[in-house]
Q: What sequence folds into this?
């Protein structure tokens, strides 16, 4: 049985004050979330504030990106050990904004997966196709390639301690959500790709859906058999909306 997981990706948003009030709102409402694990991923500079505020709660936290390099002369980068220092449980890697705005490659993302796990944290690997790739019937090929990069570098065993987020790029921040059927099809495909190497690991890995999830559409997405929760962007910035989404994720 896979535990549902809902993670808020706050992206480059927030201030000390707005994050404090968002955290208070989430903490206050968390007892109303029956079965999902709830996590938040703030910008790096707010990790101290978030870890201090959530330390005694069941809410987990993580980062939105990391460097695969060991500490040293890499101006502007953040090492895995630094995130572990702030007790991050998760690190989002390969988000489409990192792939498409900052040019991160499949190979670089695979290295980040390995480095994150080496530091004792759980990578959340984002995969997903562009609209033109979907329209050209290349969705499976693209997502298969993104998964294969990690499998090739480190093998199926590493998926024991990893999470996957299927995020069709055309659905991120656009208000367009994949239909539950479209999402389910891709989640099943991802599980099938992993099952070629190890059926047991494929059954156990949590696969989240991301792309314009809201309080109003979360329940129908999370009701799909291979959708184990969500990676939530815009709607994670409002405590009430985020909690409604978390409540929709039931085992
Ligand atoms: C995301 O950033 O991972 C995301 C899914 O964003 P949104 O929910 O805003 O589409």
A:
């Amino acid at each position: 049985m896979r535990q549902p997981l809902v993670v808020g990706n706050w992206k480059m948003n927030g201030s000390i004050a707005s994050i404090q009030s968002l955290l208070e709102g989430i903490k206050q409402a968390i007892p109303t979330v029956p079965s999902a694990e709830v996590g938040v991923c703030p910008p790096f500079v707010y990790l101290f504030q978030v870890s201090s505020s959530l330390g005694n709660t069941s809410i987990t936290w993580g980062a939105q990106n990391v460097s695969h390099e060991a500490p040293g002369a890499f101006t502007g980068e953040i090492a895995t050990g630094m995130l572990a220092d702030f007790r991050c449980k998760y690190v989002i890697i390969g988000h489409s904004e990192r792939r498409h705005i900052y040019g991160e490659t499949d190979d670089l993302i695979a290295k980040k997966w390995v480095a994150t796990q080496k530091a004792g944290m759980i990578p959340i690997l984002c995969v997903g196709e562009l609209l033109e790739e979907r329209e050209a019937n290349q969705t499976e090929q693209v997502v298969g390639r993104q998964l294969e990069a990690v499998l090739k570098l480190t093998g199926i065993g590493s998926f024991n301690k990893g999470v996957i987020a299927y995020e069709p790029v055309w659905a991120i921040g656009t208000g367009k959500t994949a239909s539950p059927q479209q999402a389910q099809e891709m989640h099943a495909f991802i599980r099938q790709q992993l099952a070629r190497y190890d059926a047991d690991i494929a059954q156990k890995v949590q696969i989240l859906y991301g792309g314009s999830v809201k309080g109003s559409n979360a329940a129908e997405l999370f009701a799909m058999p291979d959708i184990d929760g969500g990676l939530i962007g815009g709607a994670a910035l409002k405590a009430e909306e985020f909690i409604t989404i978390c409540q929709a994720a039931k085992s």
